[in-house]
Sequence to fold (108 residues):
Amino acid sequence: MGPAISAPPSGRTGTFYSPTAAVIAQNNAAVQNEAMFTATIERGQQNMVQLEQAVIKDNTLMPGEWYGGQLHLAPPTDQGGGQKAYSIVIMVGSDRHVIEVAQAPAGS
Fold:
């Protein structure tokens, strides 16, 4: 059932279905939904712009610029409790960067 009107112009009292009121309510709902969808799309586009600015891309860094971050490594589990040593090699253009890591099990 649709919207109810309690005192129609005909003088009857009570609750009845009004096709006109139902159409008005449906149109109002459609307008509200369209506004909500438009706002959601705009928010999504803004979020995408922020995400694109925050994500490093392979062409983001120019000569003389730098980028920082963190690298988290899990402690060794298959070394019988011993220390684990390895190298991380990062190539930036023709520059080779080597990071030597010596890692002991957690809690040692």
Notes: The chain has two domains: 4-54, 70-108. The chain has one helix and four strands.
